[in-house]
């Protein structure tokens, strides 16, 4: 919990200076509670539905969960998503982490442009990225392959990794690295032996976040995944759109639980500044 | 002098190489494809532009997108403000719990939320069942229309608006409020002319952020909206995969890109000016 506090220092620090509250807050507190309820309502709804059959609460059971486990389309899309997210997030970290180091400490011509190219996907609507990737796949004949899906998700998750690693790099003292350089270490050695051990928590947090970004991503996957690489969000999207079978409730509950665990893991791991994650996962 | 210290400030370009290759191949090149489909077809760019500009569907969808985005952003900020105010007034422990309540939905998949609202707002859904039990009426039609889209979108957007507003509330100097009280201002007056006015940059940043995100919404209008509530992202999908008119799809996405790019630039400007 201390890490969450560290994540939002400005908002938390001055709570002590505030005076005791009086009447208007009563209204605003009531309004706030209604909004809190509205925010968690979706998660609260899917959980009970997932234990019922056909939306009635007469007999609670795990039937829907059993149906998911028995259905090969659901299990295979869960498998695809896990595989894609693991690979995409790993690639995003392997490429994005050294890039963040270069952006923070390096001096090279065109650094601002390079940084903009890497960070730009954050500011472009995901539907536009998805359309471009669809053209790329169509022109190169790679639509529906695992490779294009994984690499596209890596590209999409990389700005988040860079932002999180950069915030980790800001917290460490660069004079340690300078000392290592003075003593003749190569930049690779400085990065691996001096920098990396100090930012490992940010790196781990960024991997988790990248995993979730890829695991939940639906628009890019909707455009470029094929039957052989259909991910869970795509499967859910087309199921809700066309069939709307009750299994969705069980899948949603599992996903909510999964997000909750990852969220807690992130808070535990620390190095998370939630305010710095302007994701557009719609 | 720079030569002597050159080894202390290494180039490190090679460290960024992998990221640059990845972003170039999977972001810059795809954007180039979109640009090339705008112009480089047998119809030509101008004919394509005229085609899109005179299309009734595109006009309707564009109006929809602007209307829905503006409504969703305004509603979201109205909902987020009391939450931000509440969080800013909490003590350490309560604050963490309240923040977690805002963060959790932030981490929940949009599909889970859309599905949940299908169940809640549907004809035989939660709200209608409760209403039926209470009043015996025939129930409200809340699904597959603009209302459902707005409910789904604001639910997704509230966390994005809470954080900038919270930042601008926390940056305020409590002494000013104190001064107003000492001089006999009523609590309402203090709130209105001090707290609220000073949080305007946060409100504006949150509003624009929500506007940018809403313009690109895809899943919510497609699952919760009716045929009349299509947004730009849905029409891009339709043009690409159903009509197979890649030029129009490219032109519409370029339009979307210009809009959200302008709004993002304004947000960055506000943030750099106020630090909100």
Walkthrough of the structure:
- The complex is a heterodimer of chains A (282) and B (276).
- Chain A has 282 residues and is mainly alpha-helical.
- Chain A has a single domain (72-276), classed as MetI-like (MetI-like fold).
- Chain A contains 13 helices and no strands.
- Chain A is globular.
- The model of chain A is unreliable at 1-21 and 271-282 (pLDDT under 50).
- In chain B, 49% of the residues are buried.
- Classes of the chains: A mainly alpha (282), B mainly alpha (276).
- The interface between A and B is large, with 105 and 108 residues.
Key words describing this protein structure:
A: 282 residues; mainly alpha; MetI-like fold; 74% helix; disordered N terminus; B: 276 residues; 13 helices
The H/E string of chain A reads HHHHHHHHHHHHH
CATH homologous superfamily caption of chain B = MetI-like
- Bin the helical content of chain B: over 70%
- The topology string of helices and strands of chain B comes to HHHHHHHHHHHHH
Give the overall shape of chain B.
globular
Topology:
The complex is a heterodimer of chains A (282) and B (276).
Chain A: H1 2-7, H2 9-13, H3 24-50, H4 63-70, H5 72-105, H6 111-119, H7 126-140, H8 146-170, H9 174-182, H10 187-216, H11 219-224, H12 232-243, H13 247-269
Chain B: H1 13-39, H2 45-54, H3 56-88, H4 92-107, H5 110-121, H6 126-135, H7 146-170, H8 174-182, H9 187-198, H10 200-215, H11 219-224, H12 232-241, H13 246-274
Short description:
The complex is a heterodimer of chains A (282) and B (276). Chain A has 282 residues and is mainly α. Helices cover 74% and strands 0% of the residues of chain A.
């Amino acid at each position: 919990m201390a890490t969450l506090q560290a994540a939002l220092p400005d908002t938390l620090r001055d709570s002590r200076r505030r005076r005791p509250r009086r009447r208007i807050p009563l209204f605003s507190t009531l309004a706030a509670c209604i909004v809190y309820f509205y925010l968690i309502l979706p998660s609260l709804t899917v959980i009970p539905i997932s234990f019922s059959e056909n939306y009635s609460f007469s007999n609670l059971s795990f039937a829907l969960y059993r149906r998911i486990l028995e259905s090969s389309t659901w299990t295979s899309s869960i498998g695809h998503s896990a595989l894609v997210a693991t690979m995409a997030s790993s690639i995003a970290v392997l490429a994005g982490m050294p890039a963040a180091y270069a952006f923070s400490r390096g001096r090279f011509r065109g650094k601002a442009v390079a940084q903009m190219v890497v960070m730009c996907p954050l500011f472009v609507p995901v539907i536009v990225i998805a359309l471009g990737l669809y053209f790329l796949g169509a022109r190169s004949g790679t639509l529906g392959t695992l490779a294009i899906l994984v690499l596209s998700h890596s590209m999409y998750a990389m700005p988040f990794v860079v932002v999180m690693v950069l915030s980790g790099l800001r917290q460490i003292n660069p004079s340690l690295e300078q000392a290592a350089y003075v003593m003749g270490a190569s930049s690779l050695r400085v990065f691996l032996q001096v920098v990396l051990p100090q930012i490992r928590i940010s790196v781990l947090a960024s991997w988790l976040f990248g995993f979730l970004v890829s695991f939940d991503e639906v628009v890019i996957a909707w455009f470029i995944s094929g039957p052989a690489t259909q991910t869970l969000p795509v499967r859910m999207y087309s199921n809700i759109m066309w069939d709307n079978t009750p299994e969705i409730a069980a899948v949603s509950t599992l996903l909510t639980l999964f997000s909750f665990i990852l969220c807690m893991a992130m808070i535990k791991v620390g190095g998370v500044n939630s305010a710095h994650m302007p994701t557009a996962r719609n | 002098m720079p030569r002597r210290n050159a080894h202390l400030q290494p180039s490190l370009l090679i460290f960024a190489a992998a990221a640059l290759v990845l972003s170039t191949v999977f972001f810059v090149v795809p954007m180039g494809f979109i640009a090339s489909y705008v112009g480089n077809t047998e119809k030509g760019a101008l004919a394509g532009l005229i085609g899109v500009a005179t299309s009734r569907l595109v006009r309707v969808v564009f109006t929809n997108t602007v209307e829905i985005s503006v409504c969703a952003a305004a509603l979201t900020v109205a909902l987020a403000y009391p939450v931000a105010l509440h969080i800013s007034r909490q003590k350490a422990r309560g604050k963490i719990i309240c923040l977690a309540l805002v963060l959790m939905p932030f981490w929940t998949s949009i599909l889970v939320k859309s599905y949940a609202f299908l169940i809640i707002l549907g004809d035989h859904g939660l709200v209608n069942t409760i209403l039926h039990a209470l009043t015996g009426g025939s129930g409200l039609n809340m699904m597959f229309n603009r209302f459902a889209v707005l409910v789904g979108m604001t639910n997704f957007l509230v966390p994005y608006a809470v954080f900038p507003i919270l930042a601008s509330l926390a940056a305020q100097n409590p002494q000013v409020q104190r001064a107003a009280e000492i001089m006999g201002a009523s609590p309402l007056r203090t709130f209105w002319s001090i707290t609220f006015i000073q949080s305007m940059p946060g409100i504006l940043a949150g509003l624009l952020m929500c506007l940018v995100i809403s313009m690109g919404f895809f899943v919510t209008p497609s699952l919760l909206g009716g045929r009349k509530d299509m947004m730009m992202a849905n029409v891009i999908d339709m043009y690409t995969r159903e009509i197979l008119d890649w030029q129009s799809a490219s032109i519409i996405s370029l339009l979307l890109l210009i809009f959200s790019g302008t709004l993002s630039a304004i947000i960055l400007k506000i943030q750099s000016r106020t630090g909100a």
